[in-house]
Amino acid sequence: MTAASELRPVIVGAGPAGVRAAQTLVAHGLRPVVIDEAPRAGGQIYRRPPAGLAQRTAKTLYGFESKRADALHAAFDGLRGRIEHHPDSLVWNAQDGQLDVMHGPTQATRQVPYSHLVVATGATDRVLPVPGWTLPGVYTLGGAQVALKFQGCAIGRRVVFMGTGPLLYLVAYQYAKTGVDVAAVLDTARLADQIAATPAMLTQPAVFAKGVYYVGWLRAHGVALHSGVRPLRVLGDDAQSRVTGVAWQDGNAERTLACDAIGFGYALRSETQLADLLGCRFDYAPMHRAHLPVRDAAGRASVPGVYLAGDGAGIMGADAAEWAGERAALALLADNGVAIDTARAAQLERRLDRLTGFRRGLERAFPVPQDWAAHAPDDLVVCRCENVTAGTLRQTVAVNGANEMNRLKALSRVGMGRCQGRMCGVAAAEILAHATQQPLQQVGRLRGQAPIKPIPIRLVPAEGSGT
Ligand SMILES: Cc1cc2nc3c(=O)[nH]c(=O)nc-3n(C[C@H](O)[C@H](O)[C@H](O)COP(=O)(O)OP(=O)(O)OC[C@H]3O[C@@H](n4cnc5c(N)ncnc54)[C@H](O)[C@@H]3O)c2cc1C
After folding, report:
1. Are residues 111 and 20 in the same domain?
2. Ligand 1 atom nearest 324 alpha carbon
3. 59 vs 229, higher pLDDT
4. Largest alpha-carbon pair distance within the chain?
5. pTM
6. Could you list the residue range(s) of the whole structural domain that residue 58 is in?
7. Which numbered atom of ligand 1 lies nearest the CA of 38?
8. pLDDT digit string (tens) for 133-173?
9. E-strand spans in 179-320?
10. Domain count of the chain?
11. Same-domain check for residues 10 and 105
């Protein structure tokens, strides 16, 4: 066992999970390294605008979450001098004992060694494309929110939000509140789904109340809310090459609405590539409709010395991320002989466990449309990096017999481009499962490959170069 003073724990991600992990390690006398590709700590929900941008109050930026945001930012700022912080730094590769990290502004890359690793990499939007989604003016819901929170600008003047999930109503509310004309919210979930999920969601009454408030506020301010819809296509203007509207199916009727921007998404998917590069074992998690790295109740991955915390190992929300970050750090400490408060560790595990019922409720309230793949037309672009359509994927199944995701990738190039399947992987798996008539878990997942996010090609060492 390494003496605690010789440990060099590295935390990837300075969101709620990473910040609480860092704080816990510091409280026990360690000096962790914290790496985040963002310029300032806070993660997605508590993302901070660039230092130079006109300051907005926490209340304006984070609404009901402003106190939590302030607390998390203060906790991180209070660690200054006691951690090694690498902002603007993308971890693009992970090998045994070291990370390859690129500093964004200078594009300098270097290797950062670690004795232990806390992976707290969060999530991105779950994307199920609709014809026309590659037109300028179409954003993911998360992207639309980042524009507002980070850059202080809106994606358009008259915006439609569509898809499903809690972010749908939250982002619509945030946009409407800033004065943007929100033309409509189109939810693929049915009202009946949300009513059926109410008992489970009432296990977290405060969170439930916020959701009800957003919907009520939108309704009271005249925003059209449609549920149980099926998005059909984004309408575009060839001359200006931009969004001009959206068409959707509402019962038997096809409806259209004019707008100049669209935010869409179907809840979130975990950022799991680092865990994958590290060799962590994955299992299919039905509640998340995804293959996720396996962790024990404390956050230990299957690889010794690797800990997983927050949305990067399963979408559970910001509060859970804070608890999981602290719990994972306690596990790291205990595994290295440092005395920890075991009662606190047990309390954190109980809190995390109690959230599972609520999380199930969310999935019930905002289900991924099960018939999405069946309705995806052949000419729908699924992978925009490599311009691979749904029809090409189906043909690859029919002609080449691809029945597993990595085989599908090798034969069609889906997920082989810049995003490495982070954006298109979910949709490609749905198409593959439908085309081969297999359950989703059977088609597997795209293996992580370095670089996990785009970096200049000159930074990737040539094979056999020894660098
Ligand atoms: C775009 C978006 C907006 C959201 N908005 C809300 C909201 O308004 N309200 C709400 O309740 N929930 C929101 N969520 C969900 C919420 O953000 C999460 O539940 C919560 O932030 C999870 O905390 P975390 O610490 O696990 O991850 P995050 O907060 O996502 O933090 C992960 C951090 O890891 C960093 N990172 C990831 N990969 C790398 C890498 N390879 N190298 C270096 N750094 C890396 C990221 O830059 C990020 O700062 C949002 C999620 C997303 C994706």
Report:
1. yes
2. 26
3. 229
4. 68
5. 0.95
6. 4-124+269-338
7. 47
8. 999 999 999 999 999 999 899 999 999 999 999 999 999 99
9. 181-187, 224-227, 230-237, 242-250, 253-258, 261-266, 268-270, 282-285, 290-293, 306-308
10. 3
11. yes
